[in-house]
Amino acid sequence: MAPAGTASDTLDRPHFIGIGGAGMSGVAKVLAMRGARVSGSDTKDSPIVGALRELGATVHIGHSAGNLAADATSVVVSSAIRDDNLELVTARERGIPVVHRSDALAALMDGSRPIAVAGTHGKTTTTSMLAVSLRTLGLDPSYVIGGDLDAPGSSAAHGAGEIFVAEADESDRSFHKYAPEVAIILNVELDHHANYASMDEIYESFDTFVGRVRPGGALVISADHPGARELTARVGGRDGLRVLTYGADASADVRVLAIEPHGLTSEVTVRLAESLGGAELTFTVSVPGRHYALNAVAALTAGAALDVPAAELAPALASYTGVKRRLQLKGVAAGVQVIDSYAHHPTEIAADLEAIRGGAGEGRVLVVFQPHLFSRTQELGTEMGEALALADASVVLDIYPAREDPVPGVTSALIIDAAARHGADVTAEHDRRAVPELIAGMAKPGDLVLTMGAGDVTDLGPEILARLQSPEN
């Protein structure tokens, strides 16, 4: 096992702190598949941890200095790991190199033809669409995604092909570590307020990412999104950079002519610029909503940038049927569909609600929303409430803190009050355990329940289904 790069010499015996996380587990999986002796720890057991163990990884539950093997060559961390973590402290005391997840991923991509997918929203979906469609064409890419496709541990794979598809996270500027042949930027908005104070800082960060594209490489970027257009103006004309745009705008290199919804799928028609062959193509996207259709067009454009024939890639995109937590159907009980959404930014919330509304038929859309991070709620709580007004009724939980400490005065009330001002039917619920009973009393046959947020609200889906199925309902 010998991945090249600045971190390569330390990745033969890596120990991952927080190995069960979406981003960390993907890197650990690829390393294990390449022959590294992987170990790690996490706060709880999970199907993802089980999948890593099946690949030969040693995973400890709970954090302890004793988890760190005597022959560990590195400790891999993400930005979520605090400095006082016992394993991190022990590694530093023993002089073991500490490697950020992004450096490990950059080392894995070295020697391949990387596609790095960035943007405020849609990264996981677009990365997944590319991975699945390229596999369907027999190109066998390697990939690391921030979510599971169809089974625990399917967030990553080591393929025999030359293409490596990776989700590029802007939240902590770690995407500055990558040197892609093709960079995708889906959209540019202000988020991650603990790390970015203004849109100028966001633009500067994305500009740096674009500057990392390999000479002769390509930037694939939205022609429709205002933030993406501003970034294109800033980076346009850069020597050695090919810029390919996509979207409904008449100037787009891959122009979207139509997006026709068909229940929970869409039919998309695009026209390619003469430089890309000039063809008109119609293909199916097997998930609902304009937002996801545009993600598929971004994937198509990126494939064209790597000379994957668009006429072959377009139908292959239909083989993507979804990723966990991205409008994932959890089940149906008592005539009520329960769907899970990772949406936590106002733009994502609105996009998923509009997509679901298009496929919900005559039933109502009921949302269980859990805000994610105090900093995000402080800055965007009003916009979250406005977006929730698109639902027929919402239940709003307390803020999921993740890596943050509470901020005085910042609560879910910021969202609830904003939603109420827009005429929304919204209920505050401070006890997660009460949600299944509450939803069972609200939902009627034909309705659709959406559990929404980046925290542990996802765990409520099965509980809601079980309550709907109970004889008491």
Automatic annotation (TrEMBL):
Cited function: Cell wall formation.
A molecular-function term among this protein's GO annotations: UDP-N-acetylmuramate-L-alanine ligase activity
Enzyme class: ligase
Keywords: ATP-binding, Cell cycle, Cell division, Cell shape, Cell wall biogenesis/degradation, Cytoplasm, Ligase, Nucleotide-binding, Peptidoglycan synthesis
Organism: Streptomyces rugosispiralis
Entry annotated with the keyword Cytoplasm: yes
InterPro entries per record: Mur-like_cat_sf (IPR036565), Mur_ligase_C (IPR004101), Mur_ligase_C_dom_sf (IPR036615), Mur_ligase_cen (IPR013221), Mur_ligase_N (IPR000713), MurCDEF_pg_biosynth (IPR050061), UDP-N-AcMur_Ala_ligase_MurC (IPR005758)
Superkingdom assignment: Bacteria
Pathway linked to the protein: Cell wall biogenesis; peptidoglycan biosynthesis
EC number: 6.3.2.8
Transmembrane feature ranges: none
Domain Mur ligase central: 117-302
Protein name as it appears in the record: UDP-N-acetylmuramate--L-alanine ligase
Family listed: Belongs to the MurCDEF family.
Positions of the Mur ligase N-terminal catalytic domain: 15-111
Primary site of residence: cytoplasm
